[in-house]
Each structure stands twice: as C-alpha cells, then as structure tokens.
Design a protein that fits this description.
Structural class: mainly beta
Strand order of the largest sheet: 2-30-29-28
Number of helices: 1
Number of strands: 30
Shape: globular
Strand content: 35-45%
Amino acid sequence: MALAACTSFKQSGAGAGPADAASGDGSPGPGGPSGMDGAAGQDSPASGDDGPPSSGDGGADCDGASCPIETVVGNLNQGTLVLVDDTNVYFGDEGTITGNVYQCPKSGCAKPTPLGPGFATGLGTDGKNVYWNDFAGGAVVGCAIGGCANQPMVLAPDQTRAEGVTFDGTNLYWASSGSVLTCLPPACTTLTAIATGVSTTLVDVASQDGVAYFVSGGSLESCPVAGCGAAPTVIAPASGTSVVVKNGFVYFTSNNAVVSCPTTEACAHPHTIGASDDPYGLGTDGVDLYWLDDIDAVVYRCPVTGCNVGAEHFADGQLSQPGANVALDGEYAYWTVPEAVLRKHK
C-alpha cells in the first residue's frame, strides 16, 4: 500500500551520497484558481536555488557505465517518487508528518522549492502546474510550477485512499477506494469514475492517449476515459503495482520479471524484458526500460526489446524506498535514495 514508503523506512547504506551513490514511462516490443497556472501566491523563484549536481556533468565525456552519479538535490528525509520535464525535477519526500512535494532545476539546487504537503504516490504536470495525490489528506491537488505559497489548490476533495495521479496530456487519472477517476485540469470541475470495483489497494495508474492502465486483482487492466464501469479490459496476468506506458506498449511486473504487452491487442503471453529479485519503479524512454530493486539495491536497465544476458547494472548501491521510481529525459535517468535525488547520464 502507499504508506509502505512512510512506514517501511530503509537505511540508505551505500546509496547515501554523491561519492558512493550510483546515478517515467514504458514500452517493450519489437521494434484557474489562486496558486494555479502561475497565478497569485507564488513565493519563491521558479525552481529553488540553482546549484550544479555535486559530481559534475558527466554527459559530454562519458557513456553509460562510465558516467558518474550526480546529486541533483540532497538533505532529504525520505525521498520517493520523481518526475521530470524539460526544465525541472519534481519529487516527493515522505520523511515529515505531512509528506511534501518539491521542485528543483534538473541542473541541481541547494534548496528545493516547496510545492505543498502530501504523501504523493503519483505526479503529473501539464507544463504550468504540478498535480499529485495527497493520500493522507484524501484529495488530488495542484500547484503552479514555481510555487503556490505551499498551499496547493484542491482539485478533487473527498478522495479516500487517493493514489497514483497520472496525466496523459489532457486528462488526470487517479485511484480512490476501488475506483479509477478522471478530470480535466486545472479546473477539474467534473470528477468522473471511469472504472469501479477495482482493487482498493491499487497504487499506480499509468495513462496514454485517453486510456488508463493499472494492476488490479492479479491482472493488468485498462479503461478508456469514456468509462468501462465494472468491466475494465483485462490485458494480462500481473503482480506488484508498477506500470508504465509509452509508444503503444505497457510495461509491468509479473513476479520477479519485468514484461510488456502492446496496448492495442490481446496479450496472452507478455514479452519478458528482464528480471531481478524485487522489481518496481519502472521508467522508460521508449528505447530502454529502467527499474529499481530494493533487495538488490540496484538500478537496472534493459533494452525494451529485452536483455539477452541479464539486466545491466546501471547503478549499484541504490537502496531506494517503496514508492520510488525512475524518471527519464533525453539525457539522464533520475531516481531517489532516501536522502537525495540522483541522476546519471544514459
């Protein structure tokens, strides 16, 4: 459940800091209100205090395994999920009474900009605002990029066990007490339950092109924004909660395997990409698939077509928290350990 990241704290071990720490979406296969939209209420610079990653920029002179792990921002209490756009990295820190969501320039910052409280298990952005679920507060909220005086706007109140906010470019989706819901941000004047009778412990929701994807009752399922009632489409058997979608493929876990299925057809036999002891936190750029493993303390990588000789150890000594993930831009992979947001050139 989502509070695992709050109640199952792990010591970071070798992943603690820039010196020994190693440095989202997915696809297999061949081949406004006050404080929103930049309105009144901003009390901080666009993305906190700039400061370059502590290990330097390894992007120009390294390739994959030879690249250093860089600390984007440190001194966190319990870093969890992460999201990147063209300019910023957004991340959750669950090591406080309320939990918090922050932003920081991707190039690094000494002090991140607070966006608002909440034990978030999902993040989304439309380029103007950042959206997340406040699990403990039972709401979906949003804040203008750059800050909103630490007072995010409540978009969807009364969302018991709100989990897994995701944005597909048009619609927000999230899970709440056995339903998957949607709305049109930033106003979200109408909340619609598109799927009902799903697992009440559903944590992650992924979305693309007007369709939501989630793991419920031992199956990967999907539901269009138009709704599917109590009969979502069953795509394939699945375990765990992690799911990402990109370029017409959906990536998820099945026991200790990381697998994929096309989004456009039945998938009786998912394609195996790689495996590890406890895979979660999937992320993809459509070329490679990355994931975390809190038993192995490794960030793994495989081509979306699959690893021929076992998954690559992209970064060792990375003991991430439950609820963490890998996020990607054109150059870097980003993830968290309890005390920092890290990145490594791909």
